[in-house]
Amino acid sequence: MTFNWFNRKFDQKAEESKADEPAQPEPEPTPAATSNPSDVDESYLSFAKAAYENIKKKRQQQEELVQPVEAIAPQEILADTVEAPEDAVPVSPEGFSVEAVNQFLGTLEDVKNDLTAAIASPESLEPAPEVAAIPAEAPPEPAAPLPFWAQSEADREARLERLRATAIEEEQPLAAVQPPSAIEEAPAFALDEGFLWSTEVLAAQGRRAEDITLEEITWLKRLRQGLDKTRRGLINQLKAIVGQGPLNQDAVTEIEALLLQADAGVEATDKIIAALQTKLREEVLPPEEAIAYLKKLLRDLLDRPLQSHNPVFVPEKDTLNIWLITGVNGAGKTTTIGKLAHIAQKSGYRCLIAAADTFRAAAVEQVKVWGQRSGVDVIANPGQNTDPAAVVFDGIAAAQSRGTELLLVDTAGRLQNKKNLMDELTKIRRIIDKKAGNARVESLLVLDATLGQNGLRQARVFSEAAQLSGVVLTKLDGTAKGGVALAVVEELGLPIRFIGAGEGIEDLRPFSSYEFVEALISG
Ligand SMILES: Nc1nc2c(ncn2[C@@H]2O[C@H](COP(=O)(O)OP(=O)(O)OP(=O)(O)O)[C@@H](O)[C@H]2O)c(=O)[nH]1
Prior knowledge:
By secondary structure, the protein is α/β, with parallel strands linked by helices. Among the domains are: about 195-305, SRP54, nucleotide-binding domain (Four Helix Bundle (Hemerythrin (Met), subunit A), Up-down Bundle); about 320-470, P-loop containing nucleotide triphosphate hydrolases (Rossmann fold, 3-Layer(aba) Sandwich), CATH 3.40.50. The chain is about 50% helix and about 10% strand. The protein has helices at about 10-20, 35-65, 75-80, 100-120, 130-135, 155-165, 175, 195-205, 215-225, 230-245, 250-260, 265-280, 285-305, 335-345, 360-375, 390-400, 420-435, 455-465, 485-490, 515-520; strands at about 5, 10, 90, 95, 320-325, 350-355, 380, 405-410, 440-450, 470-475, 495-500, 510. The strands form three sheets. It has an eight-stranded mixed sheet with strand order 7-6-8-5-9-10-11-12, with helices on both faces. Strands 1-2 form a two-stranded antiparallel ribbon. The protein binds guanosine-5'-triphosphate. Guanosine-5'-triphosphate (GTP) binds near residues 332, 363, 478 and 503. Guanosine-5'-triphosphate binds near residues 335, 363, 475, 478 and 507.
């Protein structure tokens, strides 16, 4: 089953039939059933342990499948098992002719029949001369262990069982298990604090322990790490403020300063503070409930645009989806295209890239590099400054001839004046309408989170020029301005669809308001 990284679920087909239904809003995170903190910890711990054991088991099975097979020439196998037929003519040391192999299989059949007969009536056995010659007391030589693939089913299962039973905690570097090209570095796999936090976040969103993958854990750990700086700024002071006792006006004033410092922007901050003050007048909030209420406010604010935009952002299978990727040069547009192409490939989509940001030849070359890294072809026009619409036209033609499901278009990246930008994007849309009228078109704005409020001004120009369906927030790792996500949503009214938290090809995932707020406030 293919894990679809766009909706974070297995079995794309089953999901597809659901994709047509009106998507349900994200379920409210379900804190563990009991209210007793130690029970909650216990239930999360056992959930984490189950997820850990399951991932460990999958890795062991994967190791068996990937482990290089000992290169034993057929003669050695034959020597170990049955005498090679005299007239077998080795076509080369590595192999036998087909008829010889068939003959050999025929011999095996005879051996099997003889063994069956012998088991049925042992008294009928004549000791074979060479066996008779071995003195009874000499133990037979232990047969050299056959390579895993040559073992019988029963032997294999027994070996796997032994492996599971003796599986030790020490970590096999994942690179030993998967071809190095498949991953950039072996993510650590240990039942550590990051693992526990990640499984807790996934459990609270309704995930089952057996469905949790190491890649999801690795991503959540990266997200949490990426938001470290913002969180440290927020949470230490937040806990100090809220920890002083029931939420009071001073605390609310300090929270306001914290949100502005994390670049949440004035509008989002005002909304959150107003809601807190209303709550303050209604009831006394002890510290942990105040934190929980603040988290809910942030989640609701981040999810609000989903009421006016499609809550599910998943390319439709067996259909041409065209995603226009816009954003100012340096925001991480090219990197984002490479990462999106990578998760599309991993999720089983036929993907193609059109390098239509032709303003800089270097940008086209860079897209090609990311195409290679993600294993996705890039359609580009040689020569500098060619017409972006021409590249889009070629990209659509190639996509239609190949049955591509997701065409990623790298479009204008320079922040020239709004008019030029609008003209260029309008022209591209016109080409798409003419050439691929039934394609599902989305337009994503790539925004550099480290720019904070400055990035927002750029975003406004793009959001007025292009009919945007969402934002990709990049460079969340290492910035203290993680709060800009709140400003983007509140001031642009656009949903955040993906977030980037690193330069690596794995460092982009669909945005989850629950995970983001947990990493921001209690990671
Ligand atoms: N730390 C970090 N760096 C990132 C991230 N995304 C992109 N970058 C880096 O940001 C720089 C710009 O990324 P690009 O993808 O080239 O940006 P661009 O928008 O295509 O800009 P041009 O290449 O000038 O068109 C590169 O050094 C990337 O490695 C991220 O999520 N985290």
